Every structure is written in C-alpha cells, then in structure tokens.
Amino acid sequence: MLSSTIDHMSKAHHNFYDKLAVNRIALSKLLLNDALFTAVPRDWHVIITDIKGSTAAVANGLNETVNLIATGSIVAVLNLAFKAKISIPFFFGGDGATFIVPSILIDLALKKLTIFRKNTLQNFNVDLRVGTVSVDQLYKEGHQINICKFAISDFFAIPVVLGNGLNYAESLIKAEDYALLKEEDLTEELDLNGMQCRWDRIAPPENVKEVVTLLVMAPKIENQALSLSKVMEGIDKIYGGIKTRQPISVGQLKFNSTFQRMSSEMRARIGKIKFFELVRDWFVNSFGTLYFLTSSGKRYLNRLVETSDTLVLDGKINTVICGDEQQREKLIDLLDELEQKGEIVYGLFRSPDSIMSCYVRDLKDDHIHFVDGAGGGYTQAAKMLKQKINA
Question: pLDDT of 158-204, one tens digit each?
C-alpha cells in the first residue's frame, strides 16, 4: 500500500538520498569539500531513538541488551523503508539511533517504533525514547544538516553529515520536558525480520591488543569540518586506513546461538516467546558453523567484515577502531592538543573486545553489522564526553 502510494508521487524527492553520488576520496579531504555536500530537503524529518538510563544499564551488565534494542529500532525503520523502496540515512549510536526520513514515511515509522518501545519496556524493563523533529523546524531555528555519501568499501557506503542539526535534534528529544510518543497503534504490525545477534564477543585481529571507541564533536560549528578533518587525518596516520584499523576479522568471529541469546532476540523482535519457533530456529542455527565452511558461507563472512559499521559521522565522529597502546597514546596526545585549543571535545573508552549485532535481509549481499566496543563502548565514551561538556 505504501509503495503504491509513493508510485503516484514524485519519487525523485523521496529518493533524494539514494541519488546522492558515492565519494571515494579520503574522508579528511571529503569533509573539507563543501561542494560535495547537499542540504537535506526541508520536508524530511529527523527521528531519534535513545535508551533512557543506558549508562546505568551498561553498568549493570546489560550492554548487549542495549545494543540489541538499538539495532531493533534501526531494523524496524529500515524494513519499512525497504518495502517503500526508499533509501534513508541512519546512524547507529550504541544505545540508540538517528534516522532522516521523507514525509511519506514519518507517520508509519513512528507508529512502528512506538510498538517497539512498548515491547522493550515490557520484556526488558528498558525505556526506549522515541522522538522526532522536522528538518524545516531545525532550519528555521538556524541549524544545518548537510549530507553526502562516503565509500567504506566497494560494497558499503555511509552517510556523512556536517552541521549541528542532528545534534540539536538529539538534545531536544533527550530533554526531560520533551513530549515522548506514548500511544501505540495496535492495527500496525512490527517487522523486525533480519535482526540477529548471533556472534560472541569479538577479539581484535591477531597481534592487535585493544579496541578503542571514540566520540568527537566540534563545539564551534563554523570550524566543524576542519576540526573533524584533522581528527580523521590523525586517525589515518596513527592507525592506518579503515581496513587496517577494522576491529572485526574473519579469524576472530565465533558463532554464538545459545538458547538464551535467541530467546532475547525473539522477545525483542515479536514481544514474546514462541517456544516451538524458538526451538526450530535454535536447531537450524546449530548448523551455522557448517554453513560458514561452504564457499557461500566464507563469502558471507568476508562481506560481513566489509559491511561492519565502525564509523558514523552525524555531525560528530563516532568510531570503533583497534590497535595497540602506543597508537592509543599518540591518538590521545592529538586529541588533547585539539581539545586544549578549543577545536574539539572528545570521549574515549578502551576495551579488550568488540560486540556486534546484525541486520541480515539476505545472506548474499544485503546485510549490515553494527559494532560497539565491549562493555558499552559508545555509552562509556559518551559519558566521558558529557562530563567534559558539563564541566
């Protein structure tokens, strides 16, 4: 029904993001090239999902549940967009997500996220905040959202946003007086097909010692592009390119489809446990390791590494990288220098492993994998960032 509605409207406008060119130059150079960025249309909308009290949840050992719920919110919106044949930019944040969607999707997306919010509250006692603000409102209040695409690999491109519009929208929705959506539409069905969390904690590649989760923001919007470019250039020099600093490697992947993990996934996906379906899925997944020995399975694992979402740019830098202690010390020296000059504020968290949750529409080409530092990397880095901002 949604797809047929769109067929009678101007697809060019709704497919604004899909039609953006994919840029393959160095990210530090891309950030400095204004001509490669385009303003998001005024009648699009920003949606924010955010787990309230995520820092306490991570401290209580629920970091994998936090990631699962954040991933579920992404899957709910992406499945809707896929059915409508619309490509949308989205940003994984460890304890939530950000989306930019056209007006044709906004009402349905909010309805589905509100149902998902009710499920997570009932099944996990976790409160997922869901809020929205129009791009037009952000522009009228003097904020910007300029976007382009950046090629991570031959198969995977990410949105890159400059401007403070998304950060401002997040601050509005996280405010205590924001009117959160509470009413769910029981006539709507929640589609979380493809959501998976079947991998154990992932150690860094062989001979690599640690995983670093990093958040960087530029407090002066007029210098944002230059400041973030300096950080990305520094990361490239210290750690190497995206492939070199990638914390996910085929050799360290361990399939983990325990009954408990799959039951948590099912509760997040459909809001309850269907015992016979759970047993069937567990039995099928027990043969997963055999599949990964086949040529198709090996191809999937290699593509998994290439489509791991370890770099998010939503007006700030959010990234998970791996290296050694000496590299981290060089990075901190660079970040401290830029911070002392007032160019950036950063939060950093070190962990021995990373964790991954997945959205698998098909095993051949259509899958994406969301990476966070173990122990709540993004949440812990955000905690450090907030403490500096408040100080």
Answer: 999 999 999 999 998 887 666 655 555 656 678 888 777 677 788 88
How many CA atoms lie less than 13 Å away from 281 in the CB half-sphere? 20
Alpha helices in the chain (DSSP H): 2-7, 11-14, 27-30, 54-59, 63-83, 103-124, 135-140, 165-174, 224-239, 259-270, 275-285, 288-291, 295-306, 325-340, 377-390
Residue with tokens 């490239």: 236
In whole angstroms, what is the distance from residue 391 CA to residue 380 CA?
17
> How do strand 45-51 and strand 128-134 relate by DSSP bridges?
antiparallel
Integer angstrom CA distances of residue 212 from 79, 137, 215, 336: 31, 36, 10, 16
The more confident residue out of 319 and 62 is 319
Percent helix, strand and coil across the chain, each to the nearest 5 = 45, 20, 35
Residues 6+ apart with CB under 8 A from 203: 252, 352, 353
* 8 Å CB contact between 143 and 163: yes
Q: Where are the domains positioned within the chain?
A: 2-390
Tell me the backbone φ, ψ of residue 350, rounded to 5 degrees: -105, 140
pTM of the model: 0.87
- The per-residue pLDDT for 150 is 96
What would the pLDDT profile of 343-374 be if each residue is shown by its tens digit?
999 999 999 999 988 776 655 566 788 899 99
Burial of 38 per CB tally in 10 Å (0-12, 13-18, 19+): middle
Structure confidence at residue 360 (pLDDT):
64
d(CA 51, CA 129): 6
Computed over its alpha carbons, how large is the radius of gyration of the chain? 20
